TrEMBL record:
Family recorded in the similarity comment: Belongs to the bacterial ribosomal protein bS16 family.
Taxonomic lineage from the root: Eukaryota, Sar, Stramenopiles, Ochrophyta, Bacillariophyta
GO cellular component: cytoplasm; ribonucleoprotein complex; ribosome
Keyword Translocase tagged: no
Ranges in a coiled coil: none
Keyword set, alphabetical order: Ribonucleoprotein, Ribosomal protein
Pfam families assigned: Ribosomal_S16
Protein name as it appears in the record: Ribosomal protein S16
Xref: HAMAP family: Ribosomal_bS16
Length: 106
C-alpha cells in the first residue's frame, strides 16, 4: 500500500482549513485516511500569522516507513526542518536579462 502525506480540505467556501493526513494514495482527497498528523490554516490572523500544527514524531515515523509527501506538504515540512527544503525550480541564470548574461560569461 502506497501511503501519501497530503492535505485534506475542510471549511466553507473561500475559507479553507486543512488537515495534514497520512492516507492511502488510492483514497480520494477528502476521503478515508490512516492518521491525522497536523493542521494548516492558510488564512492569516489579524496579526498576519498562518497557523500550522504538526505532530513531528508521527511525521518522522511515516516518512521513515516510506510515505511520500505531496508537493505542498513537502514545502511545509521543508520550512519546519522535518525534510530538507525542496530544490528551487528556477535557476538564477534565467533571472538575469539575456543581454547581461553574455557579458558575465566572458
Amino acid at each position: 500500500m502506497v501511503v501519501r502525506l497530503r492535505l485534506q480540505r475542510f471549511g466553507r467556501k473561500h475559507s479553507p482549513f486543512y488537515r495534514m493526513v497520512a492516507a492511502d494514495a488510492r483514497a480520494p482527497r477528502d476521503g478515508k485516511f490512516l492518521e491525522i498528523v497536523g493542521t494548516y490554516n492558510p488564512i492569516a490572523t489579524s496579526a498576519g500569522i498562518k497557523e500550522i500544527r504538526l505532530k513531528t514524531d508521527r511525521l518522522r515515523y511515516w516518512i521513515s516507513v516510506g510515505a511520500q509527501p505531496s508537493d505542498r506538504v513537502a514545502w511545509i515540512l521543508g520550512k519546519f526542518g522535518i525534510l530538507p527544503p525542496p530544490p528551487q525550480r528556477f535557476s538564477l541564470q534565467t533571472m538575469i536579462p539575456k543581454k547581461d548574461r553574455k557579458k558575465e560569461e566572458k
